[in-house]
What we know:
alpha+beta; Nucleotidyltransferase, domain 5; elongated
Amino acid sequence: MVWYVLGMKMRYTIKDFNRQFPDDAACLKYLFDQRFPNGGTCKCGTTDCFYPVTGRKTFACSWCGFQVSPTAGTIFHKSPTSLRTWFHAMFLMTASRNGVSAMELMRQVGVTYKCAWRINHQIRQLMRGEAILLAGIIEADETYVGGKRPGVRGRGAAGKTPVAGLLERGGDVNVTAVPDCKAATLMPNITAKVQPGSTVFTDEFRSYNGLTQAGFHHAAVDHGRKQYVRGIVHTNGMESFWAQFKRSVHGTFHHVSRKHMQKYLNEFSYRSNHRQGEPMFVQLASTAGEQRPPAV
């Protein structure tokens, strides 16, 4: 497959998708090649012996008849929905910067709302990447996600979900739904995900005051005094991520419950962390054959 190259960014269009995955058989063969890159070895000892079984999502050994299912244990496990519908949904979710709601997915791929909702969450499960230890210059910031409600404003706003974010400059972002924004919550989140000795930039929030004692180089800007940049010290990158996430929640999903917040955070951090290099759909599809626990 040849991608279109625009400057340094490669593009994967709907034409590329239709050419690579014209039907269910192409999707199943793609998953089989992921699970068994060398053609697979049957329990009878024969290698490169599997052929697709007509009418089933399985491949059978041409010598003993033993069958394997490329979808077993994946996000497609026991799903009656067409594999091409799943792959089309993956394409839509990676092509959109602001996310795709279950209602929009229902209209685009032609399934019921219940099915679209499950597909959405299963694909978000696929977007849950491996934890990477951040290093270098880190921006740490926390925010609250939720609709406008009467009552307390700012930190501790009633009915909103607190989330903590870490951004490695020039690298990945790691965001987590947390029970609160106390030091006892935010500090362990940083020490578990940031390499000791790294430089951590924050705002003046007191929960970050223990960073120096924890073995990090710490500097802060004072947002309360309208100080947002002090040389290289700022948290603007992390705040830009929050702005994009909140606009998407408000404009696309309208509401995200505390129960499912982490799945949406995984989705948007995946987009941020995989925006360079190969087209995002190609990167996501390359992991579709991995074993994943159910998302819902």
